[in-house]
Design goal:
The protein has 309 residues and is an alpha+beta fold. The protein has two domains: 20-49; 64-307, Extracellular Endonuclease, subunit A (Extracellular Endonuclease, Chain A). Helix content is 28%, strand content 19%. The chain contains seven helices and eleven strands. The strands form three sheets. The protein has a seven-stranded antiparallel beta sheet. α4 (170-191) runs antiparallel to α7.
């Protein structure tokens, strides 16, 4: 893919006025030509686009009827262009966030990471605000990771809606949760496409809240459900991870989808797994050996990521 050259530094002073005039004239001519081309193309194509920063990749159809992979529950469902979520206005966090992650999307050059967290006006009662997390001791933990949404500027911006956030301890967010997210991207790359649902877990009525203008509940744990139904070797795996720093291996948190459903009361992939025998097999069984967990990444988490307080 072609890249625009970086601006050059100083290349030495030119003592000749004629030399500077030539350079200036050439530059002006170049700008005039560029402007003419842009003007000529604008009606039909919107001008010249930088293919390094703008992409037309669409991982999930904007048609929300095609999203048969979202859980079936009583959440306030919000559809964004590249993921859907079930918002819980009483806790100010999502009950779940669901999307499809593909090898194709991971091959696209990453756009620049967004840095502005935004209120989601589509969520019932609106979502929590950026300031509700400030100086709370908790980070804004993505449920649909920015790294999974890096294939387009629109998807990246959407991943920074506050409805996609939950309070996470820094050593959890940047530790075991990060490790899981990065392994999931490996698995999507290896298996063409995956369906993913992530969310918080509350084992009892929350007693820990943050927030200034709103009360945002702090989860006890987090889950991630992963489904692969491409090809002949269909499989699934789930994770339930306590909300704390840990040196344990990811495989120790691996569970079946049925176990996630029992804890969250969600009906995962209800409209996607319509064959009862397939649903029973994929949700009730799990073989962690079918999902290669990167050992080097685990070592990095234990030795480095967990120590970044």
């Amino acid at each position: 893919m072609a890249k625009f050259r970086k601006n050059h530094g100083k290349e030495g002073r030119r003592s000749s006025f004629m030399g500077r005039a030539v350079v200036t004239t050439v530059s002006l001519i170049g700008l005039m030509i560029y402007g003419f081309i842009n003007f000529a193309l604008e009606p039909s194509s919107g001008g010249i686009h930088n293919s390094d920063t703008e992409h037309t990749y669409n991982s999930v159809p904007i048609n929300t009827e095609a999203r048969n992979f979202i859980p079936d529950d009583d959440s306030n469902v919000v559809h964004h262009s590249y993921y859907s979520l079930g918002y819980n206005p009483s806790l100010e966090v999502p009950n779940w966030v669901a999307y499809k992650l593909t090898e194709e999307s991971l091959k696209v050059k990453n756009v620049k990471r967004a840095n502005r967290f935004k209120v989601d006006n589509r969520a019932k009662g609106k979502s929590a605000k950026h300031s509700d997390y400030s100086h709370s001791g908790y980070t804004r933990g993505h449920m649909a990771p920015a790294g999974d949404m890096a294939f387009s500027n629109e998807a990246m911006q959407e991943s920074f809606y506050m409805s996609n956030m939950t309070p996470q301890l820094r050593t959890f967010n940047g530790g075991v949760w990060r490790e899981l997210e990065e392994n999931v991207r490996d698995w999507a790359y290896d298996n063409d496409e995956l369906y993913i649902v992530s969310g918080p877990i509350f084992y009892k009525k929350p007693d820990n809240y943050i927030g200034k203008s709103t009360k945002v509940a702090v989860p006890d744990a987090f889950f991630k459900a992963i489904l692969d139904i491409e090809g002949n070797k269909k499989k699934s795996i789930g994770f339930i991870i306590p909300h704390e720093e840990t040196d344990k291996h990811l495989r120790e948190f691996a569970v079946t989808l049925d176990e996630i459903e029992a804890v969250t009361k969600l009906d995962l992939f209800a409209d996607l797994l319509t064959d009862e025998s397939m649903e029973s097999e994929l949700e009730g069984q799990m073989n962690v050996n079918q999902w290669q967990i990167n050992r080097k990444r685990f070592d990095q988490r234990v030795k480095h990521w967990n120590n970044q307080k």
